[in-house]
Write a structure and sequence with these properties.
268 residues; alpha+beta
Length: 268
């Protein structure tokens, strides 16, 4: 016997429930992603931020601790003179190729200096000299690179393990600003070098509780639809079973004994 759940009416119900479940699943997924997206206020374009660069000395003093969550990735401007004789190389692999970041101090008018990352050169290549004279540079301020939990025993002459003020104070005779400035592509000091990529936009977020509540609501709607579907099918099958049993039960006339139902008269 054909199942009652395969009737045209029920096929329409099945398709409708599947459509509702798909919509609820999509709504749940979308709201969940929105609930944990980075805040719109912190999503920035590093290249566009250069137009709003602020003077470095307005953010920090030489030797002052730079809190990564406060000043990291900030676009800054600095005016001073490069000290090319203090150029150092920092080992770094880029796209699988070994090479070095080229760094040097930019000495300001008061004698303090900020570390500037000019760009990257492959191993064995020489970095072009920077032009002399006073320059004003604009770039992104990055925090010192952490040691990763270890310190090498020694480094080659003219190189330093990482860009960190704690190491550079031993190499350069200047009071140093914390962190370092990455120059953008197009700056004259990056000529002949591979520019260091700009910093990634901030990824911090706070939970969007409204979207999270919508996530729960969409999920509840979807589950409710599936539960209603199952209960509806169970009731349909129960009704069909009851109807079959009623059709197969014997009628009252079939259950009565043969004859007129009167007791037989006593023999005369």
């Amino acid at each position: 016997m054909r199942s009652p759940l395969l009737s045209p009416r029920w096929i329409g119900i099945h398709l409708g429930i599947l459509l509702v479940a798909a919509v609820c699943a999509a709504g749940t997924s979308w709201q969940f992603v929105r609930a944990f997206e980075p805040d719109r206020e912190v999503i920035t374009n590093p290249a566009e931020d250069l137009a709003d660069a602020v003077p470095l000395d307005g953010l920090l003093e030489p030797g002052e601790y730079m809190h990564p969550d406060t000043f990291a990735n900030t676009a800054v401007t600095v005016t001073g003179r490069y000290a090319p004789e203090d150029t150092l190389l920092v080992p770094r692999t880029q796209d699988g190729a070994r090479g070095h970041d080229v760094i040097l101090p930019l000495v300001t008018a008061d004698g303090s200096a900020v570390t500037v990352a000019r760009g990257w050169v492959p191993e064995g290549a020489q970095a072009p000299e920077v032009a002399g004279g006073e320059v004003s540079v604009t770039g992104w301020l990055l925090p010192p690179v952490s040691d990763g939990g270890f310190t090498p025993v020694a480094t080659e002459e003219g190189t330093v393990e990482r860009i960190a003020t704690s190491l550079l104070v031993n190499e350069w005779d200047h009071p140093l600003y914390e962190g370092y400035v990455v120059l953008p592509e197009g700056d004259p000091a990056t000529a002949g070098l591979t520019p260091v990529p700009p910093p990634e936009p901030p990824t911090g977020f706070t939970v969007n509780w409204r979207s999270l509540s919508y996530t729960v609501q969409w999920a509840m709607f979807g589950v409710s639809a599936l539960v209603f579907w199952v209960l509806l099918m169970r009731r349909e099958l129960a009704d069909a079973r009851t109807a079959r049993n009623a059709e197969g039960a014997p009628s009252a006339s079939e259950e009565a004994p043969e004859g007129d139902g009167q007791p037989a008269a006593a023999g005369s």
